[in-house]
Amino acid sequence: MIHTIAIPPDAQMAPLMRGYAASVSARRRQMLLGAAIAILAFLLACIGAEVDPDKFWANLGNFGGYFYRISKLDTGSFAWTDPVEWYWGLGRWLRLLGETLLMAYLGTATGFVGGFLACFLCSRNLVARAWVRFTARRMLEFCRTVPDIVFAQIFVIAFGLGPLPGVLAIAIHTTGALGKLFSEVVESIDMKPVEGVAASGGTWVEQIRFGVLPQVLSNFASYGILRFEVNVRGATVLGFVGAGGIGEELLLAIRKFFYSDVSAILLLVAICVMVIDLASEHIRHRLLTIEGGKT
């Protein structure tokens, strides 16, 4: 069977082509206008923040020069040529790094529980009272808006130097961050299981237990692991304000110009973070695979 294709005459094609060209031209103008606005906003931000490009380019060599300096020992040789001398304080640094990891773990675990408990109160598909949702959301906003390093400084004044201020700061910030993510996951669930539990006489807690949790636990775990990665990096910085961990030792080395110690500690932290990233990425993919298999 032979099919014939009718080709419109030029008189009919011309208006269509003109309309298409006009549409493409309008879309191109919108893209150019958007790019121009973005560039203008960037330049205005540089002016407002007193960011001087000339100063940046003039001192860029100092940045590379510092990394060159920390790559050498006091003897003048490159650090990797004498690993024993380079990592003379390995035992102490590993202990402080372990302290940093424990800070991140305890802060993440505590924040996970806080975000878990608060997220259900923020979800409009589970809580009908607007004032309850409003209060819970503003609380989480406060927790995640204030930087964890600010919380750490406050807790250092209150509780003194050590890991405790770091753990508390990480826990509060993690509560706010995970609470928001968890609530978004809860608001996107299928409500039929929840309605089924409610129809059978289940309480609000039972609706969450049997209707919500089976749908969200894998996502909650994935977000929790991802947050732990972030908190490991954050716990290192919190040491700069006296909140314990390897950060204190790194700040001391920077202030006293112990260049080789700076590079040794930075490399140690970088390797630790990379290992954690790889492990957590594998775990998160496994969790998502399991969740995909269920669906």
Briefly characterize the structure.
The chain is an all-alpha fold and 295 residues long. The chain has a domain at 89-294: MetI-like (MetI-like fold). The protein has helices spanning 10-48, 53-70, 83-86, 90-122, 130-145, 148-159, 163-187, 192-199, 204-238, 246-255, 259-294.
Walk me through the structure.
The protein has 295 residues and is mainly α. The chain has a domain at 89-294: MetI-like (MetI-like fold). It is 80% helix and 0% strand. It is built from eleven helices and no strands. The chain has helices at 10-48, 53-70, 83-86, 90-122, 130-145, 148-159, 163-187, 192-199, 204-238, 246-255, 259-294. It is extended, with a radius of gyration of 28 Å. The chain starts with 9 loop residues before the first helix and ends with a helix. The model has no long low-confidence stretch (mean pLDDT 86).
CATH class of the domain at 89-294: Mainly Alpha
Task: Tell me the overall shape.
Answer: extended
**Could you name the ranges where pLDDT drops below 50 across 5 or more consecutive residues?**
none
Number of strands: 0
Q: What share of residues is helical?
A: over 70%
Strand content: under 5%
Structural category is mainly alpha
The radius of gyration computed from the alpha-carbon positions, rounded to a whole number of angstroms, is 28 Å
N-to-C CA distance: 44 Å
Would you list the SSEs in sequence order as H and E?
HHHHHHHHHHH
Average pLDDT, all residues: 86
- Tally of separate helices: 11
CATH superfamily of the domain at 89-294: MetI-like
Largest sheet: none
Annotated CATH architecture of the domain at 89-294 = Orthogonal Bundle
CATH topology of the domain at 89-294: MetI-like fold
